[in-house]
Every structure is written in C-alpha cells, then in structure tokens.
Structure prediction request, 340 residues.
Amino acid sequence: MSPEVPKPSPAPSERAVAFRRARDGLLLAACLVAVIVGLRLVPPRAAPAEAAAPAASSAPRPPAPTTEARGTSAPPPTLELTPRDCFFEDRGLGDYVRASTKSGARVLTRDAAVGPDGAYDLVLHFHGADPVARILAPEGKPVVIAGLDRGDSSRDYQGAFPTAAAFDALLAEIDGVVSSSLGRPARAARVLLSSFSAGYRASHEILAASPTHPSVTGVALLDSLYASYRGGTREVDADALAPFEAAGRRALSEPRFAFILTHSEVATDGYASTAEVATTLLDRLVVRSSLVKAGGERGLTRTAEERGFFVRGYGGADKGAHCAHLGLLPEVVDLWRGTK
Prediction:
C-alpha cells in the first residue's frame, strides 16, 4: 500500500493577502516610532567642569604628562599626606653645614650641591626654616637650603623685599655664606622661592619687584596663597594675586620655569582660603583640574598639570593638615629641578 500524499493547502484569497500586508506594515511603523522616541528620551552626557579621576584603590597613580618643556617626567603626586601635626622628626642634617646670614637667614650648604664653577640651585624658603631643614636636609638633594622666618602672620613679612635690590642683597649674603663654608666662590644660579602659610607675602614682594629676575626659576606655595575678598562679596580679589598670576603664566609659556601650588581644605574667616585662591587662579589661567578620590582624610582631592604649572589639592581642615603640606617639599623640589 503506497503512502498517503498530503493534499496541498488551498491558496489564500486576495482579501486575506491584503489584510496580512496591512498588519505587517503597521507593526514595522510601530517599531520605528518606538526606536525614535527611545533615542529622544536618552539624555546627552554633560561634560563636567572638572573631570573626576579614579580612586587610588582601583587605579594606578595618574601618569605625569610628557611635554617638550620638561627635561624629565614629573614624579607622580603624593596621594595622601602623612599626619604631621606640625611636628617633624629631627633626622640630622646629613653632610650639610649650617650657617646664618646677617639678615637672619639660616643656610644649609653641602659641597655636592655646588658645581665646579661655583653655581648651585637654591631653595629659598619663607616661614618654617626649622621644619624645612628637618624635612629636606636628610634627603641629600643637590640643593643649598636657606630659610627665613619673620613672624606668625603675613604682615610680618610685609616690607621685607620692597625693591629688587633688597632681594639681590639677600642672595649676595647667601652666596657669601656658601662661599665661606666651602672655601671657594659660589653663586646661586637657580632659585626656587618657596613658602609655607604666611610666608607667601615675602614671595609676593619679590615677584612684584623682580617679575623676571634671571635667577628665579620657580615658585612653590605650600598651602600658602591667600587673598582678600572684593568689598562686600565672597569673590576673590584677583588683583592681589597679580604677581603670582604672572608667575603662573611664565610656567605655562617658558620651558624652564615652575609654578607649584598646594592647598588644603582649611577654612578661613574674612579672607579667601588657599583652596578658593587656587580655584580662582586656575580659572584665570584657563587650566583644567581633575578631581581625585584618593581616600583618607588628607588624600589628594584634585590635581592640575600643564607644562611647568602644577596644582595639588588635599583634604583636611585642621592645623595638622595645614602643616602636613611642608612634607611635600622634597617632591616639590624634584618638580622644580625637573624643569631644567
């Protein structure tokens, strides 16, 4: 018995075919409408003013940018400040020799820091000479260190360097002390103006009197740049920052000049804090900063790097957090010397 062959299905009527075509067309149109509406409902991504960097626990330290201006790559920034609480252990001076100038500057000299031609790099620091000696001397860096203290407030430094001649006189005194300590002629070829806290006023006067001094090749402000507000407002008086703004522009345009600013979150009463001033300076120089989530009470909060211009912001709003910025000095010296 042969297998049964199935009977073919009857052909659909013209009316059924038309119905199916209309149904398929409606379904396709509905899908297109859904796609278009969905795209319109997705909000565009907004570009933040400051880009957030990944947390230190989930990503490596941000690499330093490589630029034509730098002789060496900048070291990665410290991610968290050590709780110093204004006390720094005395680890000795290494091979440094201590001396003083007539004007009261304390000078630390080492033979290895002075070249055969007598030229040397000078770290001239205002406000905190003793802790600077304790922090920097044991590192044995190829620099001469000089520190000058005048008092507890910025007013104590006012009038210290009213003219270029006053600054040159201090450099001549330091050269004399270094020469005497080594028994051979010496001169400061490159100078880093460094300050902590109230010491910024001395740097302000030097930069105002000698904005393009040939020996000054760097400015470092360790939680040390304050300003007044414009009358009746909370707006930082940018005019008072003019010498520092000019120095910042030099760092952005000249290949062998460095500007390094660090700030805490310590609040101030009646005048702008270092964090507020840093923000104003970044805005005026049109330098973009990146937010950083390093963790910890005194962790890195933001960073900005462009050519020889550096800003480092750290958490912490107490006296210890303020003093901890002095501990950044060895790193700051490396940044400065890297702009040779």
The first helix runs from residue 14 to 41.
